[in-house]
Amino acid sequence: MSKASPIIVKHKGDFKKTEAFFKRNRHKRLIAVLNSLGQRGVEALASATPVRTGKTAASWSYEVIESNDRIAISWNNSNTTKDGDNIVVLLVRGHGTRNGYYVRGNDFVTPAIEPIFKEIADEAWAEVRK
């Protein structure tokens, strides 16, 4: 029985370029997932928005925001009153009327968007496990 000679591996340098490549590609996949979920969130919010004229429901949008080492998603509604108050904030928190009455708030946003948050968490966990 002969004695096996040891295997020696030598390398020079590092894997920074390879790691950067994988990080960029993972980043791109995550942005694609967030864009898909962003659009689904817009649809969920629009369908849950109380309808009077339909303008508030049609005013939903989303934005995927990238910074150095962070990605965020933001849902926005651009419909405002003549005074610049956001209609969704008035609907969710409640508001006074010109006649002196108070309209109680209706939080339709949280129940509409919670399933999307769960999907975001599930997708992020799937990316971590890869």
List the helices and strands and how they pair.
Layout: H1 16-48, E1 60-67, E2 70-77, H2 87-93, E3 94-96, E4 102-104, H3 109-129
Helix pairs in contact: 1-3
Structure notes:
This protein is an alpha+beta fold. It has a domain at 16-78 and 108-129. It has helices at 16-48, 87-93, 109-129, and strands at residues 60-67, 70-77, 94-96, 102-104. A two-stranded antiparallel sheet has the order 1-2. Strands 3-4 form a two-stranded antiparallel sheet. Helix 1 packs antiparallel against helix 3 (109-129). The chain is elongated. The mean pLDDT is 86.
Key phrases:
alpha+beta; two-stranded antiparallel sheet; 17% strand
Number of strands: 4
- Name the helicity range: 40-55%
Mean pLDDT: 86
Radius of gyration, taken over Cα atoms and rounded to an integer in Å: 25 Å
Calculate the terminal CA-CA distance, rounded to whole Å: 43 Å
Principal-axis shape equals elongated
Order of SSEs, N→C?
HEEHEEH
Q: How are strands sequenced across the largest beta sheet? A: 1-2
Task: Report the structural category.
Answer: alpha+beta
Q: Identify low-pLDDT runs.
A: none
Largest sheet composition: 2 strands, antiparallel
Share of residues in strands: 15-25%
Oligomer: single chain
How many DSSP H or I helices?
A: 3
